[in-house]
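About this split. The held-out portion is used to measure sequence recovery: a designer receives only the structure tokens and must propose an amino acid at every position. Recovery is the fraction of positions where the proposal matches the reference. Here is one held-out target exactly as it appears in the evaluation file.
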């Protein structure tokens, strides 16, 4: 019994966006993330995602760091578990 893994085209970082892992839920639509560039940031969950996308600790997200404050960022995308596993297999994380 072998499982076939089908490669899916995933949303990749554009511009300044980086991969990040959610490390802590801060409340008030804010989360603490550890970015792939080694920086810990406070990320803001935008209104368009608040009721539609549930973000939990350990999730892989795509964040866009602020230009004027490097320790803050906006969440742009949350990856499903299968998509996060695919990113790990391909060496992006």
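Reference sequence for scoring:
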């Amino acid at each position: 019994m072998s499982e076939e893994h089908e490669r899916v085209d995933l949303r990749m970082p554009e511009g300044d966006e980086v991969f990040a892992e959610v490390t802590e839920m801060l409340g008030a639509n804010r989360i603490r993330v550890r970015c792939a560039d080694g920086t810990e940031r406070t990320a803001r969950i935008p209104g368009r995602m608040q009721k539609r996308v549930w973000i939990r600790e350990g999730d892989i997200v795509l964040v866009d760091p602020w230009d004027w404050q490097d320790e803050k960022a906006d969440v742009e995308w949350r990856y499903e578990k299968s998509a996060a596993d695919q990113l790990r297999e391909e060496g992006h994380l």
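Annotator remark: The chain has one domain: 18-89.
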